[in-house]
Design brief:
The complex is a heterodimer. Chain A is of the alpha/beta class. Chain A has ten helices and 13 strands. In chain A, a hairpin with a 2-residue loop joins strand 7 and strand 8. Chain A: Belongs to the ANP1/MMN9/VAN1 family.
Chain lengths: 350, 486
Amino acid sequence: MAPRAFRRTNPITLLLGFVIFLCFVIFLFSPSHPTTSPVLSKSATSVKSKIGRGQITHYQLNNVTTTADPEGNRERVLLLTPLARFYPEYWNNLLKLSYPHELIELGFIVPKTREGNAALAKLEAAVKKVQHGPKKNRFHGVTIMRQDFDTPTPQNEKDRHALAAQKLRRATMARARNSLLFTTIGTETSWVLWLDSDIVETPPTLIQDLARHDKAVIVPNCYQRYQNNGKPEIRPYDFNSWHDSPRALEMASKMGKDDVIFEGYKEMATYRALMAYERVDGGDPHSETPLEGVGGTALMVKAEVHRDGAMFPPFAFYNLIETEGFAKMARRLGYQPYGLPNYLVYHYNE
Amino acid sequence: MPRHSHAHSNGHAYSPSQNTFSISPHRFQPRTRPALRWRRQLIVKIAAIAFFAGVVLLLIFPSFRDLLLPTLGLGFILTDDPTLSTVRHYDLNNYLGTARGWERGERILFCVPLRDAEAHLPMFFAHMRNFTYPHHLIDLAFLVSDSKDQTLPKLKEYLTDLQNDPDDRMPFGDISLIEKDFGQKVKQDVENRHGFAAQAPRRKTMAQARNWLLSASLRPHHSWVYWRDADVETAPPTILEDLMRHNKDVIVPNVWRPLPDWLGGEQPYDLNSWQESETALALADTLDEDAVIVEGYAEYATWRPHLAYLRDPYGDPDVEMEIDGVGGVSILAKARVFRSGVHFPAFSFEKHAETEGFGKMAKRMHFSVVGLPHYTIWHLYEPSADDLKHMERMEEERKMKEAAEKAEKEKAAKLANNFENQNEQWQKDKEAVAAAAKEQETKKDKILVGGEAGPHAHAGEGEAAGAKKSHENGIVDTAGNEVKKE
């Protein structure tokens, strides 16, 4: 290297110095963005708001349809999951759904717990893999949220079903569902499919099958696979889909405003007719039954029901809470929920 | 070598005419490296350094990517990344809403339900321009439903103007115009709108509209939601900050409306902000499931303390009052209230619907619901049919009065013209009167003297009266004494 190339008076040296100086100046005066959180900085919206002026977008909600043929009408489905744990079986089942993925939007809400952190990490890895993968497998969009309130008790099977803890647990669950719902339901959403993170097996045509009935609220029967002396069998799991009974109504009328009736507890015999027990072996999977309460493990709702305001009450609404309260609220708004006793989805077996 | 035929070995240009004398010696002067070659190397080095610096800069400041890459034609790098556009991460803890949101860059969702509101738009946009909260942090959402006038095209026009304003502080964040018809069951003019029978179904449709607007436009990154009616006439431009400062979950100002003088000048407008009363709760128990209690009608006497009636024009605007029902003219709420599921019931929730039901539901979920009795905004005054009739009558009366006055004047003028000018006679009379007045003056002086004595006399009279009274007392006394003596 020739020494004269780096002589002080060399114009090129001067130019270099100037470039470095320029960088320094830019570093000093570039506006810092304390407002954008590290989480948000990844999102497209913050990028847009930083650069230009906001866009004016005109949405025609009159043209958003919810019909029995969602695929033919290119109807957008919002698939929402409150994620407590991440099961690979759940994710694989989700990927197998035959409904066009570009018409499916995913939404997840994850509690702020250690368990939630673990689930989030697994979920993010899975989502990244799919969204970078082949185009036809990519979903239209994925929103992942952290909950802004505490999840009370650790969610192990025994604690989770203790009657005393139920109200608080279900109320938290309801808030999680609402937070997820009201921030992700958009102008193009036609259907909302609630699918719990522990639903590990559904028919791949789940969305088309449920939409086919063209009901405002429709719920399949949730069962669980287990081994009975080495023999694979199935048993009912979700007892929140039911027909009301005079006994339960009488109980409710005697209860205080803030008390809640729960299904499936000896202490609280309601004598409601449960959809879980209405399954007939070899029955028509498309037979319908009107319901008064619905479970949330798998639940298909027309977007307009939620838009009208039907949400998951985190308080005692007619002595009902969460998904059961939701069914009541939908009915108050003039929508009748239905169930499919012979159409099964399967819950994870712990 | 051809080279030597063109130039000298020391680099001097070869000139075909060797006439000029040159002082430089034509001898061999060796160079370590040809100039061109070392220059080229340096250029390559500089380019490498610049490239390296650019890459480092992009790594340090991700924001440069957005500015730099599209200008270099490398925009595809941004858009091709599928995770950037389709996967979004939010931590809702960052969007809880705090008392000084404008300093922390908290985004507000500004919701405006509109129906046949074309006439109010100019006023509304004047307000929009005046907001002091940083505009780029406000996302606007409009729901236009069942409108028969030019609300939507006009709205678009105004918004385009606003977004293209040369002033960089003017344009707002993202703007959604949502069109959705619900099939209006009740006509929206003032008379119908406020009739008692029309209230329940009307408010249920309103609630539906609000819910559709909110659910379609609320995003995870919103910290606050502000509801504002288009027909607010006067409101402080700092209203967002003023309400936010209280750091409450749901907060409303007092809403009044100005009135013509003959109606008293001003009047409470929004009666939907109230505190629950025992009477109303008892009344609610007697009603059937679908009934909706509406305020301000004789049919339902609730005896609730209304925010509107508690206003003191000189009161401290920061005074807070716990309320149970809220009015919808101007509501600031934390987004987490809506995220938790609180909405505007389009059914009878605890015997209330829409904004009142919203207040009730927020309370039910243990959120704080507060009104500011002395912080007032003013709703537009639209004269009702009765008022219009009254105003017509007043106008007629005024015209009649004016006509009568005019006639009177004309008559007087006519009279004056028709009769002779009496000025001369009046002059004489005046002098006579003046003379008489002078005489009177001298007389008055005398009277004044008497007048001076007058008060004394008067005072004396008073004293005399007093004396007389005491004397009378005395008589009584003496009489009493006499009686005693006897």
